[in-house]
Design brief:
By secondary structure, this protein is mainly α. Helix content is about 55%, strand content about 10%. Strands 1-2 form a two-stranded antiparallel ribbon. A two-stranded parallel ribbon has the order 3-4.
């Protein structure tokens, strides 16, 4: 019985990424359809405050350590330094637009990443994708095999402190997610994200 149980768990571990990908596509499509009209209004507000491209693109590190182009609603003025985390920008608040503060607080600026999910760059749940400049976390993720899975819109590190925890702690949460990868883990993280945003 023990051997059969181990084989069963192993089989589920192997099959779950396929199931996870199907769920990602369904959820991303459904959400994009539901938010299409409100998003048009948000895009218009972003454009009115600071005319120019409303979608901000930035290269991030994805599965296998490969680069992909991530999409966000632009929340900062157009002359802001692009290739570094906001936390490393000198006095970041002065670069964030008025509407940008609201979009960030509600995580609305992340919604265009649903397109990344449809493209297969990302998953709904997984470690947050890094900018290549975040060398400390990048090296630790390489060391502990975090790049075996797709990055996500939300993850364990997001619901346990987001940018308020150290790089080492972020990677600990990433590794824990990798170890506990499964349907109910994703459901728990997804449900825990809602009150965090609220």
């Amino acid at each position: 019985n023990a051997v059969r149980d181990i084989k069963s768990v192993s089989f589920m571990k192997r099959q779950y990424p396929v199931f996870k990908r199907m769920i990602d596509i369904i959820l991303a499509l459904a959400t994009l359809l539901m938010i299409a009209l409100p998003m048009l209004l948000v895009i218009l507000i972003v454009y009115i405050e600071d005319p120019g491209d409303v979608i901000f693109t930035q290269y991030r590190v994805g599965m296998g350590g490969r680069q992909f182009k991530l999409y966000k609603l632009r929340t900062m003025w157009r002359d802001t330094p692009q290739y570094m985390p906001t936390s490393e920008v000198d006095d970041p608040d002065r670069y964030i637009t008025r509407v940008g503060h609201i979009l960030r607080r509600l995580s609305i600026d992340e919604l265009p990443q649903l397109i990344n999910v449809l493209k297969g760059d990302m998953s709904i749940v997984g470690p947050r994708p890094l900018i290549y400049g975040e060398h400390e976390i990048h090296d630790l993720r390489m060391k502990f095999g975090v790049y075996k899975i797709r990055p996500g819109l939300t993850g364990l590190a997001q619901i346990h402190g987001r940018d308020m925890i150290t790089p080492a702690d972020k990677v600990r949460w990433d590794v824990r997610y990798l170890e506990e990868l499964g349907f109910w883990t994703d459901v728990k993280i997804g449900l825990s994200t809602i009150p965090k945003v609220v």
